Amino acid sequence: MRCVTAILLSFLGCGGAAAAAPPVIHHAAQIVLDPQTHEVRIVDRLTLPPGLAALTVGEGLVVEEITGAPAGWQPRLVEDEQGRRQVIDLGPLGLDQGGQAVLSLRGVFHQPTDQVSFSRENVGGEITATIGEEGIWLSSAAGWLPGADGALHTHDLTVTAPAGFVSVTQGRREVIAPDVTRWVADHPSDGLNLVANRFVVHEEPVRDGVTAYTFFLEDDADLRATYMERTRAYLAMYEEMIGPYPYAKFATVENWFPTGYGMPGWTLLGSQVLRLPFIPTTSFGHEIAHNWWGNAVFVDAGRGNWCEGLTSWSADYHYKELEGPEAAREYRRNLLKDYYAYVKDPAADFPLRDFKSRHSGATRAVGYGKSMMVFHMLDRQLGRERFLAGLRRVYAERRFTRAAWDDFLAVFGEAGGFEPAAFAAQWLERTGAPVLALGRVEFADDQVAFVLQQAAPPYVLDVPVQVDGKDGPRLHRVALTEREQRFTLPADQPVRLAVDPDYDLFRRLHVQEVEPTVSQTLAEEVPNVVCGDPALVQAARAFGEAFTDGRWFNLLENGRPPRDLPPGAYQSNLVINPAPAVAAEYPRPELTVAGRTLVLEGRRYSLDEYDLVYAAANPAQPEVTDLVIHCGSAARLAALGGRLGHYGKYSWLLLPAGQGRVLRGNWAPAASPLTAAR
């Protein structure tokens, strides 16, 4: 899930020079929402700081009036990397030296919400603004309040909604009347997002100065209790880990279309996501953690988005650490598997410094996964106490201001004795990942010698090496700085050696380390949908459209995946209800399918009760992964494609034909080429 970040007032930085404080615009605005006409009307009394050259508003708004404008005046329309915007030059209005101004705006927004997709693997069709009877959503991307390049905002908003509607945004809440709510934000942010709907509102105190809210579309006492309990737990966790919670409230808000957004003091979760049983203990905590990273310490967008990786370390990965070492190891391995699946093509890769936001599997694999692994490697290098002390220092010194990767590295460099510039050049500015090779392993009674290799130009790596001997496993670290180096480690009767056995390094995995998974087919640019049953062809087409989220795919109606292609020409095949001869090309020792019965990992299931989806190596080119689907219903098949994006990290899925839990698991990977036995 992504965050909507805020960028706030800057002062003396962590280990750096004093930064110029960004200008702050204050909004004292009256906002009226009308779902029947899809209209928002705004009267914004602005307090402008000196030095602003222009204000901008979204192209979907009509600027009806502004202080000092002559008759017939109109803003000019521009288009740049931020999209199409209307520009109000302040010099001709006598406002470039600051002062008070009143701006009247009107806009009509009614984007359809039925094409939005939101899953771990994919975000598509995001909504910037819509006002209707089904709900109201105004994102900062719509430019519905005036802004300025590089400026920040505080606000005192009075929102009038239609009867039965309740508004939510950041800041302290004050109910003026049943249809009027005041929202006051004393801390600046870089944008404002607002939602309104027919919410059932519940509030509980967390501690002095902090209130927890739920805004649900239907009253649900059990769901409310779950999110209230988790809110308290996460706020306490992160106050201990990082520092004081920075806002007066935290609100869990239900949305009528799929979203997973974290804003200052609140999160907006789609109805389906909100009710998934694992969300309160996983992704919900991620959104709360964004109130420290991204919404209180803000991203210096011009120097790379670090906050998704650090939030993932603080939340998703930290929860796995609490489960135990094996869960944490598997989380790291899954991140490396994602990079393997989505960033096979060098053209899809990019330096971590260039990450802005997630919009594809590749951007998630780098901006979330690689970034999380960079923080993990820093944690290993410094040790947990020094690492957390560095995080607390950055939070204390950079709260309500911008921070960049360099600010973190400056603090960590002081604590860990490494050179931040060299670390940044290797992990932030360089594309790709190291590939390690193990060679010439020689076991003796009292030692083991081996060679490590990597491609040029070499990385400087602190490589974990585990040696199993008479006294059990022992973990060593070796400094790999050249393309090829020989190492000798002491050991008592060594019998096995493993390089990076717990996936502590960000590196490109070898094919033998990666079992076939659904994500490897989701990453295929143009897959083949293979269906030999004429009665299922239309459903297969719908499956392909949902699976690819509208991208291109090939529909092969002969039921046979392509064979005898030249090397490198194979694409992932999505093979639907294969004939026995085709199914025999995808053998898995863990799986037997006989008629309508299947045996999977020693347990028997019926294909009348479950649909089976599993990943397997392409018979002609094992580096390519295919997906085999056994589905007993055209209606279920058509819907199946959109569900698989939630389960990309798994090798196999059993999806109930009716209600019930999706069963899932992974095949065991092959033996790693980074291990050797005596």
Structural overview:
This protein is α+β, with helices and mostly antiparallel strands and 678 residues long. Helix content is 23%, strand content 34%. It folds into four domains: 25-297, tricorn interacting facor f3 domain (Immunoglobulin-like), CATH 2.60.40; 324-427, no CATH class; 436-509, Aminopeptidase N, middle-beta domain (Immunoglobulin-like, Sandwich); 518-665, Chitobiase, domain 2 (2-Layer Sandwich), CATH 3.30.379. The strands form ten sheets. The protein has a seven-stranded mixed sheet with strand order 4-7-2-1-12-15-14, with no helix packed on it. Strands 31-30-32-37-36-38-39 form a seven-stranded mixed sheet. It contains 13 helices and 40 strands. Residues 1-18 have low confidence and may be disordered.
